[in-house]
Every structure is written in structure tokens, then in C-alpha cells.
Amino acid sequence: MKALNVTRAETRRPVETRDQREDTRRLQLIEATVAVIGRRGYARMTLADVTDHARLSRGIANFYFKTKESLLLATLEHLTGEYAAAWRKALADAGPEAADRIDALIHSEFSPKVCRRDRVAAWFAFWGEARTRKAYARVCTTTDEQYFRAVVGLVEELTKETGTDIGAETIASGLCAMMDGFLHNYLLDPDGFDRAGARRACRVYLASLFPTAFRARIEGDERPRRPVRAKAKSAEAPSAAPANDAETLPAWTYRDAEFHALERERIFKRTWQLVAHVSELPGAGAYASLSVAGERAFVVRDGDGVPRAFHNTCRHRAACLAPADRGTCGRAIVCPYHGWTYGFDGRLMAVPAEPAFLGLDRADYGLVPLEHEVWQGFVFVRFGGDGPSVAAMMAPYATELAPYRLADMVPERPGVWSDTTDADWKTVMDNYLEGYHIPVGHPGLQRMFGGTYEVDAKDHGVARATSTLRPTPSSVWSERAYQRLLPEVVHLDEDRRRAWTYYSLFPNTAFNVLPHNVSFFQVLPLGPGRAMVRAAAYSLPDARPAMRAARWLGGRINHRVYLEDDRLVRSVQGGLGSTVYRGGLLSDKEICLRQFHGELRKRLPIARQAERPDGALKAS
Ligand code: FES
Q1: Of the four, 13, 379, 465, 492, which is 20 to 30 A from 98 by CA?
Q2: Which of ligand 1's atoms lies nearest the C-alpha of 352?
Q3: Pocket lining: 319 vs ligand 1, CB cutoff 6 Å
Q4: Quick check: CB of 179 below 6 Å from ligand 1?
């Protein structure tokens, strides 16, 4: 029925007026120009590249822009207008103090909306040409001058308050030069660029001049984990990395039964495993379960509303106590085999025909509790091992995730979706952790996002990739409808309202954090070369028809992506058995995958061996 509703909504869409159609076409060509300059450079850009990218004919391009030069100038004006709108909005939304507004400018400068690879590449390309092209010089200089004057004005307000004798223009020049320098670094190494570090460096600079206004702003910042100045790439850069860092895990580790057994012991029984969301435990006795690596867990809400976690194994003869993914066990946990009954605190409360068990002391046969943690509404368990909590691991992203209110979400439908695949769990995670395959493997995502993903990896195997919907309408109706219908989600920061962001948590869990919903993605090992994928989507109540349509469309788009991925991972798993493939190379675009393989090698050093050693395997 939802499909029918959306179809009707689609057919009711007002027909574009001629003016609107022209605006859309012009914008398509301009966006394509930005993308092509970003990819091929200014000098090598051709009108044919642009029309191919925009999927428009050369005749249409000529109709809207008589010459390549007029298209380029319109593109530059579009970029400068977009940039000016972003910083002016940042100023308008900022607090009343001069420091608030300067800080807002810094934040805006490195926001994903402004500091985007295609934008920055095109902007620097135009600046390079401005030396010889007066029209470009006029646009670039005017834009820069307006921005610079705004910064000078704010710095003047600060200098009046503090009485520093350094001129406002000098200070503003220093700040603007820093920001330009960081944008240049970003252009050279977008994947290694640290936005928080760049913002922090600007604040540190200002705090050295205006400590009262800026010192407190530094203290809340995330410290950069790498030198803020990103290294320029050189032809030698990839080979300078340690050999293992640039190499995939060897193929044998994806197919070997003993290695798989080591993974179960050393990884899955020692890391956090997601069970459910707290909203799926609505009252006392509601439970959710998970089986992984030969262990079974369940989480049950007790009479005080507190989630408790136990091994899902009866102490009598090992029957499963909570057999469903999601369920309820009434007032007590009753084993379905012989009826041993446990309280929600795990105590063994009743045993049918108890006198027949000579010497039974119920206190010795309570359920075995499990370490568990509730992070932003998601309940995790850990069967053993130690290490940081989920909250500590995800701490680098806590601030940006907070507006999504994950803990307040509810399931979009009951239960958990799952599927099995003929691919190793690592093959599935490998695929999830890199966006390098998107332009070829996921035409839909490419149409919607243009292949521009910002990626970063943190300590403890946590990483993130994010991209923002392109304004250019997709040529496919469902994607185009999603782009058009997705309503404003006002509780999100503006730069997240059209962003799809993927967070991964070592070893096998990820969160797809989208404007219309959030879903987890979890890969469970079933054997060497065989895995199960579990997923469920959650969202905040929002009855707007456009949101309902966006959720349906988002689900449709993501299901297609899953099918595409499943075909790819099965294909890879087949290739991993080939006698000619022993391992591969990882590019700079696959940094999350490098990190993932690095974490696996740390836990299982045997994975550093290019060939499987003879005999029984040991972890090291
Ligand atoms: Fe649970 Fe017998 S196995 S009561």
C-alpha cells in the first residue's frame, strides 16, 4: 500500500514550469562542471565531459551556455554565491558576541557543506586562472574582499574589548590565511584531513590574542589525533606506508576453518555485540536475543525497567530460554524444556519436581550474567575480554550524533531483518568499510551522492564515512523522488539534513545514520566463507506524508544497494579461493578498511602471514 501511495504522490507532482525546468538544467550543467573540474582539473575539462556527467546533450549545453567560457563563469558565480550564503547564514545564526560570530565562521569554513572536495578543487582551480582572466579575478576578489571585511569588522569589535595593539586587519589576515591553508591541505589529502583539528588550530590562534573569548572554546574541542597539517601526497606516498598497512589480509584467512575458530575466540567473544534497541524492550519481561560465535545472549527488562543481560542457556540442560529475536517471557523466565523458572535478576526461583534433584541448591544455578552496556539506546553485550566501552569507542562522534536522538527512536517495523550469504564475515565488512566501489558498484548512490565521501578512522576500530545528497536530480524516479521529498529534519544541524553517514564499530557493527532513519548493520560469522547479516531501522515519530514517503523510498534504495553489495561480496569470496589470488592492495580511499585489517592483525598476528602456515594454527 505504501508503494501505491508513493506512486500516487509522484503522479500528483506539479509539472515544472518552463522557468523551473531551465533553472534545473542550468544547475545540472553547473554541478557537472564543478564535478568535472574536481576530477580532471580546470585545464583538462571539456564541454563533452560536462554534458556526459550531466547526462544532457551537447545541444542543451549550448542552448543554456553559448560558450564553455560562459558556463565556467556561471559556475564560478554559483560557487561564490553558495559560499557567501553559507558564511552569511553562519553569522546570522550565531550568538551576539563577536567571538561567537568568528567562531561560527570558522565552523562554517570547515563544515562538510563548504569544505567539500569538489567545491574546494574547483575554487582553487578558478583562483589559479584568475591571474590571467579578469572576469574570474573580479568575482574571486569581490567574494574574498567581502569575507575579509566581515572578519576584520568582527576582529575590530574584539580588539576594542581587549585593547590589543595589533591591528584588526593583521589579525584577520592571519586567520584567513590559516583557513585558506587548511583548505589547501584538505585538497591535497581529503581523507587524511582533520576538520576538528583545523577548527581547533584557528581557535588556538585567536586564543593567543583573545584568551578570554577563545580559550574556553578550545577546551571543549576534540584534540586532533594526527598532525593537523596533512602531508602532501607524492608518488612515493603509498609505498612509504608499512607493507601490511597497504595490503589486504591474505586470502587464506577468509576461507580457513581454524582461522575462523580463532576469530570466534579472539574477536567475537571479546568484543561488543549489539543485541537490540531499548525501545524493543517495552516493559518488564520483554526480551531480545542474539547468537554469535557459539554463544547465546539475551537481554530482558526487569521489574524496575532496567535491561539485564544473561547467557541464553538454561542451567539444567542448556536449553535456549529466550528463543525469539524479540519476545516476552511474562512474569518470569521459564525454560521451555522442563520449566525451570528464573527471575529477571537471574535467580533460579522454581524447579518442577525439585525434591528429585538431590542436594540441589538453587543459589548455585542462577543464570550467568553478561557484561552489557546501553549506548544511545542500543544494548550491547560482551561475552569476555576487556577494553573500552562502546561509549568510549564512539566518543569522537558523540557530539555529532547527539542531535539524532538515537535513544528516543522506535523500530520502524517489528523484529530484525536478516539474510545469510556465501561470503566470509570479513568480506562483508570489507565491502561495508570502503566507498571506493560506489561509483562502479552502486550507480544509484553515485547518482544521488556523486561519489564524494569524507572518511575518517579513529582509535579502537571506529570509523565514519559521510556524503551529502547532490542537488542534481537523479535520472531514476525513486532516487529523484527521495531527493525531492525528503523533508527538513529541523533537529539536525543544517549540514546533516541531507547527509547519509555510516559509522562502523569494530569488528562487525555499523550504523547507517540518515536524515529519515537510523539502522544498524551487523555481520555474524556462520563459518569460514559464510555469514549472516542482521539489520533493523529506527526513527523518531514523524507522520508527515513526505517523511513517510522518504522512508519508504530510502528503504527501497538501500535494499537495492544491499543486493548489489551481496552480489559483489559473493563474487569476491569466490575469487579468494583462486590459486592466483593471495592478497590485494588497499588505496588511500580505503583507510577504514586498512584500519579494520590492522585491528584484525593486532588481535590475530598470524594474519600477517601471506601463506597459511602448515599444521595447527595459533593466533600468533
Ligand atoms: Fe531448562 Fe531443563 S533444560 S529446564
Answers
A1: 492
A2: 4
A3: yes
A4: no
Q: What secondary structure, in 3-state letters, does 273-323 show? A: EEEEEHHHCCCCCEEEEEEECCEEEEEEECCCCCEEEEECCCCCCCCCCCC
Measure the CA–CA gap between 290 and 273, rounded to whole angstroms. Answer: 8
Question: Of 297 and 101, which is predicted with more confidence?
Answer: 297
Q: Please report the pLDDT score of residue 232 as a whole number.
A: 35
The torsion angles phi and psi of 519, rounded to 5 degrees, stand at -130, 150
Q: CA 607, CA 620: separation in Å to the nearest integer?
A: 8
Q: Is 372 helix (H, G, I), strand (E, B) or coil?
A: strand
Say if ligand 1 is within 6 A of residue 321 CB.
no
| Alpha carbons 6 and 2: distance in angstroms, whole number | 6
| Cα–Cα dist 594/449, whole Å | 23
What distance in Å separates the CA atoms of residue 246 and residue 33, rounded to the nearest whole number? 33
**337 touches ligand 1 (CB under 6 Å):** yes
Task: For ligand 1, pick from 310, 321, 335, 362 the residue to mutate: most ligand atoms within 8 Å of CB.
Answer: 335
311 Cα to the center of ligand 1, angstroms: 14
Q: Three-class SS of residue 102? A: helix
Report which protein residue has its CA nearest ligand 1's atom 3: 317
Query: Residue 381 C-alpha to ligand 1 middle, in angstroms?
Result: 23
Query: Looking at ligand 1, which residue's alpha carbon is closest to its atom 2?
Result: 338
Cα 320 to ligand 1 centroid, rounded to whole Å: 8
| Residue 498 identity | R
Question: In this structure, are residues 354 and 368 in contact, taking their beta carbons and an 8 Å threshold?
Answer: no
Closest CA to 480 of 411, 544, 426, 550: 550
CB of residue 335 inside a 6 A radius of ligand 1: yes
User: How far is it, in rounded angstroms, from Cα 61 to Cα 49?
Assistant: 11
DSSP 231: P
Tell me how far apart the alpha carbons of residues 118 and 617 are, in angstroms, rounded to a whole number. Answer: 48
Using CA atoms, how far residue 49 sits from 120, 473, 519, in Å, is 19, 18, 37
What's the 378 CA to ligand 1 centre distance in angstroms?
Answer: 30
In angstroms, rounded to a whole number, what is the distance separating the alpha carbons of residues 299 and 98?
51
Of the candidates 458, 457, 459, 504, the residue with the CA atom closest to the CA atom of residue 274: 504
Distance, CA 305 to ligand 1 centroid (Å)? 26
Residue 10 has pLDDT above 80, yes or no: no
Q: What DSSP state is assigned to residue 232?
A: P
Residue identifier of the C-alpha nearest atom 4 of ligand 1: 338
Give the mutation target among 317, 329, 351, 360 for probing the ligand 1 site: most ligand atoms within 8 A of CB. Answer: 317
Q: Rounded to an integer, what distance in angstroms lies between the CA atom of residue 65 and that of residue 69?
A: 8
Question: Cα separations (Å) of 379 from 274, 413, 475?
Answer: 6, 18, 40
pTM: 0.63
Query: Cβ(147) to ligand 1 under 6 A?
Result: no
Q: Is the Cβ–Cβ distance between 108 and 87 less than 8 Å? A: yes
Query: From the CB of 352, is ligand 1 less than 6 Å away?
Result: no
pLDDT (tens digit, 9 = 90+) per residue, 214-248? 887 776 554 433 333 333 333 333 333 333 578 99
**Percent of the chain whose pLDDT exceeds 70:** 93
Distances (CA, A) of 114 to 39, 229, 241, 402, 446: 17, 19, 30, 22, 20
CA distance 166 to 213: 16
